[in-house]
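Something for you to look into today, if you have time. What I am after is a single protein written out in full by you. I want to see for myself how the chain folds. Could you add the entry underneath, on a fresh line?
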Amino acid sequence: RSCSRNARLEIRYGHCIGAPAAALKSAEACGHWEEAMLTARGARDFEEVSMRKPFAPQLGPRSAPQGPGILPQITGQLAIIAGSPDFLVSWLIPFGVFAVLTLMYSYSFMLLPSVCCLLSAAAASASLFLLAIRKRGHVWLPLGAGCLLASLAGSVAGLYIYDQYACFPAFYENSRIYTNVVPSQPSGAVADAGKITFSTETSVDTNHSVGFVSEQGQTYCVAPVRDKSNAGLIEFWAVGMGCCDSLGGFACDQSTDTSARAGIRVFDNSGFFYDSRKDFYMKARKKAEAAFGFVSAELPMYVRWVREDNLDMLSDQYRTKAFGVVFLFLVFYLAASAGLAMATYSPRKGARNLVG
C-alpha cells in the first residue's frame, strides 16, 4: 500500500497531536516501524508495536532494510520472548527450586532428612496445582512444568551429591582421632575412629597385597597393616584404587613412604546409586585371605595409608568434589531450565502475532 506524505507525518508526530493509535495504523500501512516506535509513549503502545514489528531493531537509528529470512525472524522472536518478564519467571523460578533442593539434600540431608523430603513434596504439590490452573493464564503451564521437573531433578541431584561426596566430610568431622594404635589390637576398640596414628613399628605389608577387578574394570587394592609381632589375626587393611598388581606391588597413597604411620578410615555410604567402595575392598580382602592364608577379623577396618600431616586428605578431596559437582549441576540446569521455558512458554494474546 502507498504511503502518503500526510501518513508519514502522522507516524512521526502522532504523539504530538494525541493520536498514537492512528500512528500505529499508518505504520502498518507503510512499514515504518522505527517512526512508530518513537510515537509509543505508553507501555501498552510500546508493547503493541514491539510485538507486531516483524524483526527490525526496536529502537535506535534506522537500519538498512532486511529481507524476510527465517533466521532473522526467529532471532527477533527469541529476543523478545527472552526479554519478557513472564518468560524470566518461567525460567528462573524453576531454576531456584532446583538450586535450593540440590543444596539442601547435598549438605543438610544427614541432619534434616525430613525437612528435605517435605520441601520436595511441597515443591511438587505446588507444581501440580499450577498445572491444574494452567488455562487461567499463559504463564502457569511453563511455570508448573518447570517447577515439577526441578523438584524431581533437584532432589535426585542433591541426594546423589550427598551419597557420593558430601556425606564423607561430615563423617570425618564427627569421628574421633586415635594415636599410637597397635595394629594387633582389635579394630572394634577404635570403632568410632576417623583418623588413626599407629605405633612406630607399624607398616604396610606391600608384598602380600592383592588387586580385585570389578565389573566396571576398576582395580581395588588391599594390603595388611602389621608390625613386627606378625600377629595371626589382621585387624587393619590399607586400601586404594588402581595402585597394585593382581598379587603384590601395592603402592597406594603414601604406603611406600617409610615415615608414613597414619591411616584415614574408609567410611561406607548409603549406596543409594552405586555400591560403595568398601564393598569392593571387602571382596579384595577375601581374595587376599584365600591367596595368602590370612585370617582377618570379622569386621576389620580399612584405611588409606598417609603421613600424619596428611590426615585431612580424603576430607578435603570429597569437599572439593562435592562443590565442583554442585556447580556443574547448577550451570547445566540453568541452561536446561531456559530451554524448557522456551519450549513451553506461550506469549499472551498481544504477542501471538509475532511468535504464533
